[in-house]
From TrEMBL, chain A:
InterPro entries: MetI-like (IPR000515), MetI-like_sf (IPR035906). One of its GO terms (biological process) is transmembrane transport. It is found in: Cell membrane. Residues 67-257 form the ABC transmembrane type-1 domain. GO terms for cellular component: plasma membrane. Pfam families: BPD_transp_1. This is Multiple sugar transport system permease protein. It is a multi-pass membrane protein. Keywords: Cell membrane, Membrane, Sugar transport, Transmembrane, Transmembrane helix, Transport. The chain crosses the membrane at residues 63-90, 102-123, 135-156, 177-199, 236-257. Belongs to the binding-protein-dependent transport system permease family. Its main location: membrane. It comes from the Bacteria.
TrEMBL record, chain B:
Residues 1-24 are annotated as: Disordered. Keywords: Cell membrane, Membrane, Sugar transport, Transmembrane, Transmembrane helix, Transport. GO terms for cellular component: plasma membrane. It is found in: Cell membrane. This is Multiple sugar transport system permease protein. It comes from the Bacteria.
């Protein structure tokens, strides 16, 4: 290798090390007893590794339940977004109807409205519906998103009309065309949408924080956020184990589907 | 073999085949289309569009937490909240802090993202995938989880100061020093977000033809000259996309102060979003909504400005 190339690799490796250092610290710390974590000068490798922190998360804290809650909310939101966005995306892309331009304009405008703008009225609305501290209250506001419809519409628009016409000539109605022609062709944008929605919901914390009022409805980030400001705030080992529990599933999913993750986020610029 | 088929198909290709059923057919089509949109429209209308309008109307009323169940007892106050906002030193501080975060954070994120993207695109083969995945990893993590670690990294005797100490620098108490809390949050935000512009830049770089750069090199241009006069100009559309996305995201600066500093110390990391959330917490729904609309205006303005500037230069 030429020296310039060696230098380039060296710099990239150094940058990577710095980027991943917080993860390494998190993982190593989660298997240390708290005494070792706060030791000064700090040590990287655990001297007496233990899974005690994780055991405590499961036995004294209800992390298994929070894990289930997080999964239920995220998966339901993914399914809702996939189904409803592809249906609406099909209508916007391939059907002519009164009000289409206005509706789609609304979808585009909503793409840039910051979350904090809708936060207060959304909270008032969901409270008035009697849905605070319920799964429905956690899920309903995120069951559809303008981004999903936008993504699906852009992709479906590029599907040649001749395919739809051929199905129509064979006597297929719109429902059949949607299920048999459109959906099977839409795997790439559906994968992108599924990943973006899952990621957003898995990491979502502000909404569940105000909606979930009792422990049985906490999601993982809510539990961890409340946990770290509570009496356990100095129990670093436990906190780090909690952080590992929140981060590991999404990182594993990311490693398994890295291409789709990166492409999806690069294409939309959102997460 | 199909040269005749399209010509034959022409008469039946137009949507309305005969005159009378035309309007009935159109009504039917609209009905079907609306049926496809119905679940989306109902949910999007209820939980997306309606709150936008209702927060706009809240911003001109004296609604507070006590009025939730009696929406008709609130009074119209005009632009009082907006004038109050601009007389509130806490809000002005929040606006300045948000500007600080945006003005420093956006260029820093873009430079780091572009540097790594260029390095990854400079012909390396080995471990390219590993680097891309590794640099991107912070993007997928939960801010709450990451905050646990970063709070520890920023302790007076934490990892960052240990590294600085090696270089002979006595690091500050990052999160408790009004001068250093914001830089600390900026660094964390850059770490969490640079992966997104990095992959967008990578895609942009890959679309620049390699022979263009090679030709410049043959003509005696240095790497830096080729980068400045070929790569950068051709990357302008990508840069615009990145700049707009980052502006929209960074103007909403909220998560880092929420999980790391609670807007402190001494209000030095309170952003506009954080201010709005605090007002919501106090029950001042009208003020919270007004503050969030100032943010909407800022986002719209900045995006527009960037499109103007880039179009003028292009």
């Amino acid at each position: 290798m030429r020296p310039a190339r060696v230098l380039l690799y060296g710099a990239l490796a150094l940058g990577l090390l710095a980027t991943l250092a917080p993860f390494a610290w998190m993982l190593l710390g989660s298997v240390k007893p708290t005494g070792e974590i706060v030791a000064n000068p700090s040590v990287w490798l655990p001297r007496s590794p233990t899974i005690g922190n994780f055991e405590q998360l499961l036995s004294k804290q209800n992390f298994a339940l929070y894990f289930v809650n997080s999964t239920v909310v995220a998966v339901t939101c993914v399914l809702g977004n996939l189904l409803f966005s592809s249906m609406a995306g099909y209508a916007f892309a391939k059907l002519e109807f009164a009000g289409k331009k206005l509706l789609f304009g609304l979808v585009l405008t909503m793409l840039i409205i910051p979350g904090v703008t809708t936060f207060v009225p959304l909270f008032v609305l969901v409270s008035n519906m009697g849905l605070s501290n319920s799964y429905l209250g956690l899920i309903l506001p995120f069951l559809v998103a303008p981004l999903g419809v936008f993504l699906m519409r852009q992709f479906i628009r590029d599907i040649p009309d001749s395919l739809l016409e051929a199905a129509r000539l064979d006597g297929a109605g719109d429902a059949r065309i949607f299920l048999r022609v459109i959906v099977p062709l839409c795997r790439p944008p559906l994968a992108t949408l599924a990943i973006l929605t899952f990621l957003g919901q898995w990491n979502n914390f502000l909404w569940p924080l105000v909606i979930a009022q009792t422990e049985d409805h906490y999601t993982l980030p809510v539990a961890l956020a409340l946990f770290s400001v509570g009496a356990n705030g100095t129990n670093y080992g436990l906190l780090l184990a909690g952080a590992v529990t929140v981060v590991t599933p999404i990182v594993l999913l990311f490693l398994a589907l890295q291409r789709q993750f990166i492409q999806g986020i690069a294409n939309t610029g959102l997460k | 073999m199909t040269t005749l088929a399209p010509a034959k198909a022409v008469p039946t290709a137009g949507p309305p085949r005969t005159e009378p059923p035309r309007s009935r057919g159109r009504a039917r089509r609209t009905l079907i289309a609306w049926a496809f949109c119905a679940p989306f429209i109902v949910l999007f209308g209820t939980f997306g569009v309606e709150p936008v309008f209702s927060s706009l109307s809240m911003s001109v009323t004296d609604i507070t937490a006590r009025d939730i169940r009696t929406p008709f007892s609130v009074d119209f106050v005009g632009l009082a909240h907006y004038t109050a906002l601009f007389q509130d030193p806490t809000f002005l501080r929040a606006a300045v802090n948000t500007l600080y975060f945006v003005v420093v954070g956006i260029p820093l994120t873009m430079i780091i993202a572009l540097t790594i993207a260029v390095a990854l695109n400079s012909g390396i083969r080995r471990a390219k995938g590993l680097f891309r995945v590794g640099y991107f990893a912070p993007v997928v993590t939960s801010v709450v989880a990451v905050a646990v670690v970063w709070r520890y990294l920023y302790e007076p005797d934490g990892m960052i100061n240990s590294v600085l100490a090696v270089a002979g620098i006595h690091g500050p108490d990052w999160l408790n020093d009004p001068n250093w809390a914001m830089p600390a949050l900026i660094l964390m935000a850059v770490w969490r977000h640079f992966g997104i512009p990095m992959v967008i830049f990578l895609a942009g770089l890959q679309s620049i033809p390699a022979d263009l750069l090679e030709a410049a090199r043959v003509d005696g241009a240095t790497r830096w000259q080729a980068f400045r006069s070929i790569t950068l100009p051709l990357l302008r559309p990508t840069t615009l996309v990145v700049a707009v996305l980052l502006s929209i995201g960074y103007l909403q600066f909220f998560e880092e102060p929420f999980v790391m500093t609670s807007g402190g110390p001494l209000g030095s990391t309170t952003s506009i979003s954080y201010y709005a959330y605090e007002q919501f917490g106090f029950g001042n729904y009208g003020m919270a909504s007004a503050a969030s609309y100032v943010l909407v205006a800022a986002i719209a303005l900045l995006s527009l400005l960037q499109f103007r500037i880039f179009r003028a230069k292009a």
